[in-house]
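REVIEWER CHECKLIST
Item 1: Sequence provided? yes
Item 2: Single chain? yes
Item 3: Sequence as submitted:
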Amino acid sequence: MFRKQLALWVCCLLGIVACVSTPSDRYVRQLTPELMLQEKLEQQLAVLAADEAVRQQLNLAMKFRTQICQRCHGVDGHSRNGRCPNLAGQNPAYLVQQLEHFSDGQRQDFQMQSMVRKMTDADKVAVAIYFSSMSPYPTATKKDDQAVKGQAIFHIKCAQCHGKQGQGQYGYPRLAGQLPGYISMMLHEFRKPNSRRRITIMREIASILSEAEIKLLAAYISTME
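Item 4: Structure as written out by the authors:
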C-alpha cells in the first residue's frame, strides 16, 4: 500500500512543480523556500521508493522523534482530540507546505509555531513522509441519511480541489476520514472575517454554506475512506 501511495504523492508533487514552473522561474526557485521544500520532498520520496531499507530506517527513527506530535495527532496518525486533524495518509506535499506556513507565520497557532520553529527542512520532509505513510481509515463506519446528503454537497463544493474520493491532490489536503468535529470547526474558522486561515477560496466556499450543510459535509467526510 505504501508503494502505491508513494507513486501517487510523486505524481502530485510533479503536478505542483509543473503548475508553478514558468520559463522565467529559475529566479523564483532561488527565492521561494516553499518550492524548494517541495522539491526536497520529491527527491526524498524518490529515494524511499527505490530503497525499502532506507524507508524502514526513516519510519523507525520518526516513531520516536514524533512523540510530541503523537500527543495531539495520535500514535497511528488518528487524532483522539476533535480539535486536531488526522494526519494518517495525508498528502505529504500539503503537510510540508503547512509546516512551512507555521514556520514563516502565514499560519497562526502558538503550539505548532513553537515546535516548527526548531525544525530544519529535512525534519519537515521526514515528518510529512512519516505521517503520510500511515494507513488512513474512516472515523465513521456507516453512512446515515446525513452522510448521504453530504455526499452531494461534497461533489459540488469540494471535489474539484480535494478529489472525488477526498484523498487530496496536488497541494490540497486529504479530507477523507477526518473527524466530523474538526471539519465543522475548520469550516467555521474559514468563515470568520479575522480567520487565522487566510485561504481565499475556502473563505468563499465556507461563507455560503449553511449550518445544516456544514453538518452534512462533516458527516459525509468522516465516512470517506
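Item 5: Key structural point noted by reviewer: Residues 180 and 218 are 4 Å apart (CA to CA).
Item 6: Recommendation: ____
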